[in-house]
Amino acid sequence: MIKVTVWNEFQHEKESAEVRAVYPNGIHNAIADFLRSDEIEVRTATLDDPECGLTEEVLKDTDVLIWWGHIAHDRVPDEVVARVRTQILTGMGLIVLHSGHHSKIFRSMMGTSCNLSWREDGDLERIWTINPAHPIAKGVGRYFEIEGVETYAEPFGIPEPDEVVFMGWYEGGEVFRSGCTFHRENGRIFYFQPGHETFPIFYHETVQTIIRNAVEWAAPVLRTPGLKCPNVKKVHKTCKD
Length: 241
Ligand code: ZN
Known about the structure:
This protein has 7 helices and 9 strands, in the order E-H-H-H-E-H-E-H-E-H-E-E-E-E-E-H. The chain is of the alpha/beta class. It has a domain at 2-113 and 176-218: 3-Layer(aba) Sandwich (Rossmann fold), CATH 3.40.50.880. It has a 9-stranded mixed β-sheet with strand order 2-1-3-4-9-8-7-5-6. The longest helix is centred in the C-terminal third of the chain and has 14 residues, at 205-218. The protein is globular. The protein binds zinc ion (ZN). Zinc ion (ZN) binds next to loops.
């Protein structure tokens, strides 16, 4: 059983009827609904919950954290970000969706601006699987299309990814590294570009397959209880007859 926490800042849905029409129960519940299964246990957390719903207890009981944020990145307290960061380094997986590229946690894990160019006009995106043997690409096919996305364009201000799994092409001609992986100590991170709040992208079957695959990929292989830098005793040579 993989334990997933879906975190959504949950502000657009409260403020905009247009967004509410697409995600009446919030983006977090739309994601939780397709992830929940015999293999995946899901809880949700939002910005307005006490401590953003991300207490030490919740994080230690989370194998993979999914992050969606956009207009309220700066309202996530630094101590919450530090707590999440520590858990990633000890082995918790992180999946950052769409505008989460500018979240404090993603920028902290990347160490760069994570800037990109963007245009919100509902272009078609054709997402190419450029690493078809990667576990996150399982069952996806050579490419798939999403009708109506927010264009994100290169250059994307991230460090060189460990793997680029998907490359996005937009009908405006731009390209973008739409699916990238990073390893940070014990933790695995997947960034996935689709997911603008006014488009029904989290109902797209292939998008759901990819996020499900990413949960399996990002689940901890090794989870240490904390971060340590121990002084250790020498291992003595053993004598064998
Ligand atoms: Zn967006």
